[in-house]
Amino acid sequence: MLPLIEAVEWLLSRLGVLSGFATLLVTLIVVTDVAGRSIFNAPLHSATEVSELLLVALVFLGLAGAQQKRQNYAIDVATRHLPMPLQNILEAFGYLFCLVLTVGLAWFSTKQALSSYDRGEAGFGIIAFPIWPARFILALGLWLLSVQFVCDILRFLTGNQRATGPDDATIGSHE
User: Fold this and answer.
1) Is 132 among the domain residues?
2) CA quadruple 112, 114, 115, 116: dihedral positive or negative?
3) pLDDT in tens, 39-50
């Protein structure tokens, strides 16, 4: 079971890295648009729309990787002083609650993405830029986060918690 979990988590972490490249692309698009607008008086058409799509990819494809490395927000002021068995129960409940919530959001987001695709939903601008790809990326990111919560639950139940080393520790980490 653990090799399967690790393989899934490896894939999810690579998608998180890939989402980071969206930052580079957004930067390049904005710089090109600003330079073209100010130097040549020729803006890059659809730069805003493409940047918005990339920002959705940046955020939602990186959610699972952030959860995997425990870089999402956590508030443990009330729980860190509780007995360890109670902390474990609350952690398990937290994983289960987040899984149910994320699956619900992913389900409704998927339905919305399919509806958007069927309607050919597009934004207003010089070019009718489709909105449905961003909706699908959002839904995909939520489904991937759900998969990561399943991995977290399986790790918790089998006692194979993810090792966190100095590379994973961050300022303000709840570890």
Assistant:
1) yes
2) positive
3) 998 888 888 889
Q: How many CB atoms lie within 10 A of CB 149?
A: 22
- For residue 95, CA distances in Å to 63, 66, 158, 171 come to 15, 14, 14, 23
17-48 burial, b at 16+ Cβ within 10 Å, e below that, comes to: eebeebeeebeebeeebeeeeeeeeebbebbb
Domain of 11, in residue numbers: 2-158
Coil, strand or helix at 54:
helix
How far is C-alpha 104 from the geometric centre of its chain's CA atoms? Answer: 15
pLDDT digits (tens, 9 = 90+) for 135-147: 999 999 999 999 9
Round to whole Å and give the CA distance between 66 and 12.
10
**Is 169 part of a structural domain of the chain?**
no
